[in-house]
Design a protein that fits this description.
Layout: E1 5-10, E2 15-20, H1 23-28, H2 76-85, H3 89-93, H4 97-112, H5 118-143
Antiparallel strand pairs: 1-2
Helix pairs in contact: 2-5, 4-5
């Protein structure tokens, strides 16, 4: 099969180089909008006219996200209000089910410790931390720091 030969200037070597490319690559080396030669065959945007030639690569799909979309935005308000009424529910809303169940179990244990009086100190501290954790979890998910 005959492939076209393209001669182009390489600025790093300060000389012309001869490149043998496939027909598919030839169509990728020229802008379909203005016809300008592209410096790289995998260029996404034409440097002359600014038209997008290729779409940027899509982010990899995340598995195990319990049915939630990876681009779904979690409301920090809903997470905090849910955890206000039932500790751990805000974390479950954010998609961290085991974390939410663990916080719910911890809240139940702290509530049972009220009988021994230490729970009177522990439960409010645990409850406030639960609210803060639900808020920061939703905020980090929205910022993309944590995946669901």
């Amino acid at each position: 099969m005959n492939y076209p030969v393209i001669e182009r200037y390489n600025p790093t070597r300060i000389k012309k180089e001869i490149i043998i490319v496939s027909p598919r690559e030839v169509s990728l080396m020229f802008c379909p909008n203005c016809g300008a030669e592209l410096q790289y065959a995998d260029a996404e945007i034409c440097p002359k006219c600014g038209v997008r030639i290729k779409n940027p690569p899509a982010p990899a799909a995340k598995s195990g996200n319990a049915g939630a979309s990876s681009d779904e935005i979690k409301s920090t308000g809903i997470a905090v209000v849910a955890s206000f009424f039932i500790p751990g529910l805000g974390q479950i809303y954010c998609g961290k089910i085991l974390r939410g169940i663990g916080i719910l179990i911890g809240a139940i244990i702290c509530a049972c410790l009220i009988i021994i009086v230490i729970g009177i100190i522990l439960y409010p501290i645990f409850w406030i931390w639960n609210l803060y954790d639900a808020y920061t979890l939703a905020k980090k998910i929205n910022a993309g720091e944590i995946t669901i």
